[in-house]
């Protein structure tokens, strides 16, 4: 085994152990399980550090996060609770989404708001960043581009959760006007 | 996402106000239901696309793989052979060479060329000496990757729709987290059996939360790749006089100029050696010749140095060998490095087969998260006395119809070739939904379609083994067949357990 593979092996063990200790801590009552919590996080951090040491920060972090997720799935799989013969308790019931009166007109308005207007605003901010941020051309274009899905996704989540359509509409319109103003201002001034 | 418990045994003040959680959950449900089928198809095909290079080899297993990187002389030979073939096919405009890369799992030397004006193209596989040995033929892999990238719609629109699906997934991750107030407390609960809603909610939340780094990275990178044309289009309007190519060139490097008079064939071996003089451990991964053998040609040479995530850094050269700089994908600015990691992080092409297998598991997990998102909603309706049996059947038809349709399309590709793949896939997808509607319940439809998917996968393995019998020289052909066999057996397992009296199948929605 190469040193990198050996480090990865021990890193994987640490991550599995760390998550197992976190499980013990989170399923128990504090402060009795505080030690498990501390050891769990310490082992997780140490496992990630071993991966980074073995493969370098860039590749090691990517490997560690993959193993982290898979290790958690493994720990959960070992702790499956079979409830085939148990009755459901009241406290097991999931929270309910907010009951909202809706109609086709409102649903269409929500869809337009979350998909179209949130998208327009997100692209506006991304392009404004790509045009005006004080960075190298590559950096501002790529970061501006990266901002678009993040902001669009955030905007979608917010507009769909917010029952007040007018508030979201006005805010998104304002953001769009400002961002496109910033994005196209240099071009307008050059004319 | 839904949390399995509402009331805490302790009387702590909740981290998120219940009203806020309910509002987020309502938004999460609406978004999830609106985009569920698209997200599911994109996730499932994306999981398969992770193994694109392996599937290409499975579709053409009579060509020996090249496990290690190739020398500069081999690349030069491949270039000359490719150019000769491109001239013979009257398509010598742009030429592309892709070499073996253990980092991404690509184990072939491929040469492609195309003429954008006549739309003539050719894709070849070269041997370890750089001689062209066969035309590349992987129609099913191409079908799945195009389905994942643009849903077989006109490319711009399809990519935009997939990008929008990525945004919806990203948004669902945000709203899911915010509607999950007991994320840490419930982080390890997985209750199986009993209430279907509780079981699916646990599965949905556990796979969703613990796989979050992966889910976030693939949805963000996928959304950015899909929306790139739209975003760069607006950027071009704002800063590049509407010239999209100019805007793309600002981030993707220089392109060939307008002078199309004859020029020399680039000395690619010298270019590779020039890069290796500065970076001795860099190896060849790809070369893109824009307007090959023309006066204004430009070469994009991909060379990979160890210790980095990108598939390679790109070095730009003029046709006469003059260096024009590099893309900085490995050690450049933050934007350049982000650009470099987008593709490997999205597809899991940065650690060979182990990383791809991890991506496979996490991709299936994301598909399950999407599938159970809808079944939770359906179960909730049933629990509240407002069942939607029609939608339960349709969703079973969508969810289990996809493996079936993808399997049948692979079978069609093996026996009938490329033209029949899309019709076979569309017909199977539609028929699966119609069949599900005719079943007595969604659970019954799911069980039958899952069993049918398993038998179709077995048929694919049988077809592949008989078609390529005695001609397989690439062990990947056998490895993929074995994997498909195991997947088929896995799909049949609930059926076998039920017959032997052990009922571990998911409880019926009617329970």
Describe this structure in words.
The complex is a heterodimer of chains A (191) and B (511). With 191 residues, chain A is mostly helical. Chain A has helices at residues 3-27, 34-55, 57-78, 104-132, 137-161, 165-190; one strand at 81-82. Chain A has two domains: 3-78, no CATH class; 104-190, no CATH class. Chain A has six helices and one strand; from the N terminus they run αααβααα. With 511 residues, chain B is α+β, with helices and mostly antiparallel strands. Chain B has 15 helices and nine strands. In chain B, α1 packs across α5, α1 packs across α11 (352-383) and α11 (352-383) packs antiparallel against α12 (389-416). β1 of chain A pairs parallel with β5 of chain B.
> N- to C-terminal separation of chain A?
65 Å
> Going across the major beta sheet of chain B, what is the strand order?
4-3-2-1-6-7-8-9
- Number of DSSP strands of chain A? 1
Most strands sheet of chain B: 8 strands, antiparallel
Q: What helical percentage do the residues of chain A reach?
A: over 70%
> Biggest interface and its residues per chain?
A-B, 82 and 98 residues
Rg of chain B (CA only) = 25 Å
> What proportion strand of chain A?
under 5%
**Anisotropy-based shape of chain B:** globular
Structural class of chain B: alpha+beta
The dominant shape of chain A is: flat
Distance between the termini of chain B: 22 Å
Strand content of chain B: 5-15%
Give the SSE order of chain B as H and E letters: HHHEEEEHHEHHHHEEEEHHHHHH
Question: What descriptive keywords fit this protein?
Answer:
heterodimer; A: mainly alpha; 2 domains; 6 helices; 1% strand; B: 511 residues; alpha+beta; 59% helix
Task: Summarize the entry for a quick read.
Chain A is an all-alpha fold.
Helix and strand topology:
The complex is a heterodimer of chains A (191) and B (511).
Chain A lengths: L2 H25 L6 H22 L1 H22 L2 E2 L21 H29 L4 H25 L3 H26 L1
Chain B lengths: L17 H32 L2 H8 L12 H17 L5 E5 L10 E7 L4 E7 L5 E4 L3 H12 L4 H24 L12 E2 L3 H15 L1 H28 L4 H9 L15 H11 L4 E8 L7 E7 L8 E6 L4 E4 L7 H14 L4 H32 L5 H28 L4 H18 L3 H26 L7 H25 L12
Antiparallel strand pairs in B: 1-2, 1-6, 2-3, 3-4, 6-7, 7-8, 8-9
Helix pairs in contact in B: 1-4, 1-5, 1-11, 1-12, 2-4, 2-15, 3-9, 5-7, 6-11, 7-8, 7-10, 11-12, 12-13, 12-14, 13-14, 14-15
């Amino acid at each position: 085994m190469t040193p990198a593979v050996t480090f990865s092996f021990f890193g994987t063990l640490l991550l599995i152990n760390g998550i197992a200790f976190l499980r013990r801590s989170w399923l128990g009552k504090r402060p009795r399980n505080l030690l498990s919590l501390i050891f769990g996080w310490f082992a997780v951090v140490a496992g990630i550090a071993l991966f980074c040491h073995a493969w370098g920060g860039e590749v090691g972090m990517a490997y560690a996060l993959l193993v982290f997720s898979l290790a958690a799935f493994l720990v959960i799989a070992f702790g499956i609770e079979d409830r085939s013969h148990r009755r459901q308790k009241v406290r097991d019931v999931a929270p309910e989404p907010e009951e909202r009166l809706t109609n086709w007109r409102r649903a269409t308005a929500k869809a337009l708001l979350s998909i179209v207007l949130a998208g327009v605003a997100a692209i506006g901010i991304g392009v404004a960043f790509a045009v005006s941020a004080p960075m190298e051309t590559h950096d501002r274009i790529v970061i501006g581009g990266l901002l678009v899905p993040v902001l669009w996704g955030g905007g979608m989540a917010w507009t769909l959760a917010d029952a007040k359509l007018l508030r979201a509409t006005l805010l998104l319109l304002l953001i769009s006007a400002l961002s496109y103003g910033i994005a196209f201002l240099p071009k307008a001034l050059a004319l | 996402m839904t949390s399995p418990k509402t009331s805490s045994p302790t009387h702590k003040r909740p981290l998120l106000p219940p009203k806020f959680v309910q509002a987020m959950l309502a938004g999460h449900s609406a978004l999830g239901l609106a985009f569920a089928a698209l997200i599911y198809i994109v996730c499932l095909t994306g999981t398969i696309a992770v193994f694109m290079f392996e599937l290409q080899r499975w579709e053409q297993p009579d060509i020996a793989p090249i496990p290690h990187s190739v020398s500069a002389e081999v690349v030069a030979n491949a270039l000359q052979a490719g150019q000769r073939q491109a001239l013979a096919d009257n398509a010598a405009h742009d030429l592309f060479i892709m070499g073996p890369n253990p980092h991404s799992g690509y184990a072939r030397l491929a040469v492609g060329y195309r003429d954008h004006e006549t739309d003539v193209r050719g894709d070849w596989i070269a041997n370890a000496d750089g001689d062209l040995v066969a035309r590349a033929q992987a129609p099913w892999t191409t079908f799945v990757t195009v389905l994942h990238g643009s849903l077989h719609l006109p490319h711009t629109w399809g990519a935009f729709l997939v990008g929008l699906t990525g945004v919806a997934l990203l948004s669902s991750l945000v709203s899911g987290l915010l509607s999950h107030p007991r994320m840490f407390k419930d982080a390890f609960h997985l209750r199986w059996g009993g209430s279907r809603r509780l079981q699916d909610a646990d599965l949905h939340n556990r796979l969703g939360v613990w796989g979050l780094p992966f889910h976030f990275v693939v949805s963000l990178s996928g959304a950015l790749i899909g929306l790139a044309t739209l975003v760069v289009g607006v950027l071009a309007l704002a800063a590049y006089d509407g010239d999209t190519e100019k805007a793309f060139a600002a981030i993707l490097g220089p392109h060939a100029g307008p002078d199309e008079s004859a020029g020399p064939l680039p000395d690619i071996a010298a270019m590779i050696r020039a890069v290796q003089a500065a970076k001795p451990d860099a190896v060849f991964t790809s070369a893109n010749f824009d307007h090959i053998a023309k006066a204004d040609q430009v070469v994009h040479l991909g060379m990979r140095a160890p210790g980095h995530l990108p598939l390679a850094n790109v070095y730009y050269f003029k046709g006469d060998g003059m260096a024009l700089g590099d893309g900085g994908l490995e050690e450049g600015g933050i934007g350049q490095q982000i650009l470099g990691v987008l593709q490997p992080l999205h597809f899991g092409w940065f650690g060979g087969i182990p990383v791809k297998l991890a991506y496979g598991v996490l991709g299936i997990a994301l598909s399950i998260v999407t599938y159970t998102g809808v079944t939770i909603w359906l179960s909730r309706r049933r629990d509240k006395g407002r069942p939607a049996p029609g939608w339960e059947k349709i969703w079973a038809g969508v969810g289990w119809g996809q493996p079936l349709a993808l399997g049948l399309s692979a079978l069609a590709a093996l026996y009938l070739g490329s033209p029949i793949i899309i019709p076979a896939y569309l017909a199977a997808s539609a028929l699966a939904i119609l069949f599900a509607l005719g079943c007595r319940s969604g659970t019954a439809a799911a069980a039958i379609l899952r069993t049918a998917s398993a038998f179709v996968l077995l048929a694919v393995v049988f077809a592949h083994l008989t078609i390529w019998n005695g001609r397989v020289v690439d062990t990947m052909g056998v490895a993929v067949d074995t994997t498909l066999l195991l997947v088929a057996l896995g799909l049949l397992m609930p059926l076998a357990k039920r017959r032997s009296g052990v009922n571990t199948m998911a409880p019926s929605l009617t329970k």
